[in-house]
User: Which sequence fits this backbone?
């Protein structure tokens, strides 16, 4: 009986630090939200991107990083959708510059911002693949 009690105690003391630890964020490219976004969702994201995010992220104005920059966006993808959404929703200060809250889409709600974030990464992947192909064909 005493042994059993000890075993439970050991299990519990292992579990307390282990079980309360927050799980690591899922890379946005591997997330369900990214992989299962509907066409309609992408269109919403795209329309926000084209009216707001585009201004800084297309060519890298105001300290923003253009979407072709694979290293930057791959690293950022690791933060996961929730953190990235928070960065855009609340505004974000990075190494290169400052993004205003909601990325200038003042009328956007949280769901729309989320879709625009997912769209940004879709676009980034597409542009990076195209760039890679072009570089390979120039070899
Ligand atoms: C006024 C310019 C500007 C606009 C508009 C803008 N951004 Fe940004 N964005 C930035 C800057 C500056 C950064 C930070 C760069 C750095 O890391 O130093 C950034 C970073 C990000 C990041 C990475 C955040 C992180 O935590 O790593 C995401 C994602 C992003 N922007 C998405 C968006 C989306 C989606 C929109 C449109 C809704 C948008 N941005 C509009 C300037 C802008």
Assistant:
């Amino acid at each position: 009986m005493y042994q059993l009690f000890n075993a439970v105690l050991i299990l519990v003391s292992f579990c307390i630090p282990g079980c309360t630890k927050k799980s690591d964020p899922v890379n946005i490219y591997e997330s369900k939200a990214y992989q299962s976004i509907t066409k309609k969702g992408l269109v919403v994201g795209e329309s926000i991107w084209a009216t707001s995010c585009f201004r800084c992220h297309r060519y890298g104005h105001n300290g923003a990083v253009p979407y072709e920059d694979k290293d930057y966006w791959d690293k950022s993808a690791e933060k996961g959708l929730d953190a990235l959404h928070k960065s855009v929703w609340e505004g974000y200060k990075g190494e290169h510059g400052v993004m205003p809250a909601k990325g200038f889409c003042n009328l956007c709600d949280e769901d729309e911002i989320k879709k625009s974030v997912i769209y940004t990464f879709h676009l980034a992947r597409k542009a990076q693949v195209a760039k890679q192909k072009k570089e390979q064909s120039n070899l």
Q: What stands out?
A: The radius of gyration is 20 Å.
